[in-house]
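[09:14] KT: can someone run the structure on this one? pasting the chain below
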Amino acid sequence: MDRLAEAMGVHSREAVPDAIKALNTRLGLPVSLREIGYPDGDRDEMADDAAKSFFNAWSPHLPTSAEYKALIQEMMG
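[09:31] RB: done, structure tokens below
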């Protein structure tokens, strides 16, 4: 993350997410799944499905359903 911060010209790894959001805004990219027309659904069900996904087998961190739900809520906008 430090290398990404350096490449983006920000002073710390903590500044990277805001720099990415600012870049997306400057490019006119949508900031949420809702803006691109992704249907809103039962977020508990979506989070449970994500937690059970076989893709998690390769993840260095196994998110809980609660973590997935928070992520989905943020992504939906």
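[09:33] KT: thanks! The chain has a mean pLDDT of 91.
[09:34] RB: yep, looked fine to me
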